[in-house]
Amino acid sequence: xxxxxxxxxxxxxxxxxxxxxxxxxxxxxxxxxxxxxxxxxxxxxxxxxxxxxxxxxxxxxxxxxxxxxxxxxxxxxxxxxxxxxxxxxxxxxxxxxxxxxxxxxxxxxxxxxxxxxxxxxxxxxxxxxxxxxxxxxxxxxxxxxxxxxxxxxxxxxxxxxxxxxxxxxxxxxxxxxxxxxxxxxxxxxxxxxxxxxxxxxxxxxxxxxxxxxxxxxxxxxxxxxxxxxxxxxxxxxxxxxxxxxxxxxxxxxxxxxxxxxxxxxxxxxxxxxxxxxxxxxxxxxxxxxxxxxxxxxxxxxxxxxxxxxxxxxxxxxxxxxxxxxxxxxxx
Length: 331
Ligand code: KG4
Ligand code: ZN
Fold this sequence. Notes:
The protein is an alpha/beta fold. It is built from ten helices and ten strands.
């Protein structure tokens, strides 16, 4: 049995998993309400809240799983990428538990957690992964566990970051992603012809900063938007993001000769993205594995899933190993 902790940003999470993939508990304490007044994550506030939430979240997970610390075979935690003061909280807690219980510690890359999250219930198989979160936009060719080749990433803003910034511009609460999606309902996605950054670049890189600026200029020209215009702005922005993500993911699968596309990360909650990718995959005879919505935003179940792969291979980490805010997925 594994206990995994996640604290890379503003969610404090604990999960218990019986390897290889039986999830017994997954608890998440979100700090969204604490950060909302500031319009974004305040690192100092995040780490203090992790400290307060870790113990109750761990206790909830153990009680939901119906087992005590003595049943754990290893303790895992996210070691990067993320905010260092946040990472340190979950990481130190997992190391302390490992030391106290005389069990190994397993450091997990947060992005590897997202990458494996569409495979919570089954075996990992070769695929092309589209990972879209608040900090990353990545296309990766996954040939097996630990065998990752980065095909492309964003040159500037991550997809989730673009949603959050556009949400802020439009006066919507933090985090902007779900708010923009909600505000886009009933809007006309063709009213504003926003740029599809790098759509025809011929590679798998992304750029969302031009799109963000275009929304800003449009807004400046329009003045304060009424409800219908707000919906059209959100729907048009969302379509511009989705079209690029979908086109590049399909192109990547073709170029790698893979029949499976996996979608993960917080932006994978977005119904337009899920539907857009599902339609194009079906047209192209590709299989789509989209992460379950409850495992798309930050959670510890995905960290436990990645830890289980390491556990099976005896890949343990030293207690002296530091966290790394810039930890990369691929060399
Ligand atoms: O994976 P995640 O929880 O954290 C990171 O690792 O970054 O992703 C959070 C991101 C935020 O930018 C949030 O706005 C975005 O995911 N997000 C969404 C939606 N739900 C969350 N973006 C678009 N539509 C959504 N429904
Ligand atoms: Zn994440």
